[in-house]
Please model this.
Amino acid sequence: MTSDRIRILDGNIFVLSEDNGDIIDVRTNPCGFFELDTRFLSRWVLSVNGERLHPLAVHEPHYFEARFFLVPGTPTHYVDAKVSVIRERSIAGISFEERLTVLNHCPTAAEYVLHIEVDSDFAPVLAVEQRRVAPGRLYRRVEEGHLRLGYVRERFWRETTISADDPVEIDERGLTFRVRLDRNARWTTTLHVTGRVLRPDGEDVRNRLHRRRRPGRPELRRDLRRWLTNAPRLSCDWDTMTHTYQRSLVDLAGLRYSPLTLPTQAMPAAGLPWAATITGRDSVLTSLQALPVVPELAAATLRMLGIDQSTVLDDFREEEPGKILREFRYGEMAAFEEHPLSPYFGSADVTPLYVILLDEYERWTGDVDLVREFEAEARAALRWIDEYGDIRGDGYVWYQRRNERTGLVNQCWKDSPDAISYRDGRLPGQPRATCELQGYAYDAKRRGARLAREIWHDPAYADRLEREAAELKRRFNRDFWIADGEYYALALDGDGERVDALSSNIGHLLWSGIVDEARAGKIVEHLLGPALFSGWGVRTLGAGQGRYNPLGYHVGTVWPFDNALIAWGLRRYGYRREAGVIAEGIIAASAYFDGRMPEAFAGFDRELTRYPVRYPTANSPQALATGATFLLLRTLLGLEPYGEYLVVAPEVPARFGRIELLDIPGRWGRMDAIGTVHPGARTSPVA
Amino acid sequence: MSDATAQFFAQLGRHGHERLLRKTSGTIRFDLTRPGGVDHWLVTITHGQVRVSREKAAADAVIGADEQLFERMARGEVKPLPAWLRNDITAEGRFRFVLLLERLFDPPPGARHPRSVPPISREVR
Model:
């Protein structure tokens, strides 16, 4: 449903509109101009002589600009417009700008009345789908040359100002231009919409903080060119792969975001429209996936999340010392603690993932300084695993919410309330220890041990971590294994019993390396078997499980990032062909989304629908999905840092043909990787 | 200035704060409004060591707050970040020092260790 929206963005500032450029508030399909988790415009409707406009063409040259070519009325079988309008829209600095051009096609002079209806509800982005009555006071004010819309609740204050470059009549509901055009003449004006976050003294809070001025359009264009030039160049015989790679690079560029805390660096925001903000899991996993193309994202992510690491216990925010945050929001509901998102720490996976990213980042870049600088944070994260993650004191990582009103029931990546279930569909009690959390803990300890030995020069600590990891692996393979199904349980419940649903989580275990060599074959059979593999990718939950639903967010859909991690895991255990099957399925699916990897798509059998069905409310672009493209490429080419070198060991399915990824950045400088199809390879049956 | 505020800064100056990391350095000035005036406190952090003085000097970050609200923050009852989002406190300068504030204050009262939360049993059909 968000699929038909035209979107422009720059990190945490974005505009979603209909295909004629209008913003009309529809609860189930949000439109608007958003910044810092607040909707600053909820209505922006253009008419000419009282008629709404219809798009003949929409062009999106860059992620921060769009162009609409419009005519009045609804075209029937032919268009006979006397007038047409071009709407050119961009994010420019902290404003949203719209240039309007009216073209008179009449053989005589004509008069046109252009009207733009304007309104804002100042809704927090997470509440735009609800029927929330704003507790504060909305106001509108017409002032010399501009319209001011505002929202005040106690001292909390947000304002939108709208102005134009040309003479305009302004009333509380909008702007009106009266234009007289000669035959074949044109007229142009530019509108400016600025969202402001005000202090009680009327100044924007951001003006008083050290930060870099937000780049305007020419700088954004230059920056995007530089970004694309610096990234490795891909050429592949399969056009879909090349196109998706290019699109992913651009999408990732658009999602870069400089938090107030780190004004000169950029980390990935999680996605549009729901999560254009700092997140733990999405930033860590996106940066991890993107290491082969933009390693510097990981440095910013590690810094930002390290600075915000918790040092206290807090029930409302589910904080514990050493924990890495889940997300940070700037909106009204976070401010007034209607939800705990300023910041919220309710996720058990981000803390071990933080250590994993720190290690993997150093392996790629050789940036030992950062590993030294964040030693205390990494040690605190590792301590969190044993002290606060291990709720039952049995050596596993568990979660149980302490904020029973607004905290999350599931604090793993599958965080919807019904995501963790038994095979028969029942829901387990709390606490819960999902299997992939144990894999992450195992991996974090092993990687922490490497950092301790090689960089922190603490061999005793390294030995201890390695011992603990080995012990965890032994115990895990005893307690999570479901003998009759021959796979790992999705979780343990509060009584230590197995939560026995068959899920994609078992694929993450391969990535972490916690799977006993002897059992890997069985796991691979499940992952590529009919219950889990849809033909496009691995479903989050196996078909036939009690709660399976091909359109269920975490109980049946296919997630590209989940599949990228699974493919990487298959590769780790030597199942290169199977990794290729998954990479091929996901890349093939991306073609149906014009190369923009969707957050998730339906788990229907490929045979049944022939095309992947988009999950209705998915974020797009979504950083995790965008990153999947890069990790799949890494997996296909078998890219692995080894000391100062980059090892390239390709295993390329026939569909891809030749893959060349040139100028891969890392501690080796720049390296090329070329993968060709093995002479004996056949196109896999799902192609 | 209130006794509680004076006591808080005296304590901070004497004992520093164990939740500050050794690599942390910088200055934070607190401008605390009370009936009849504004008190300035300068907290200087040098490699995790804290020194407190009463001066209106330039700082990496300047936090403006009502003294009563400040006391509640110092006791861990009010979190600085949501307070900033609500405009209950103001912040100028380098935002990373706003994130650091929590490390100077008491932890939230009454918070539980995850192990002390009673388990919940599974759904029965």
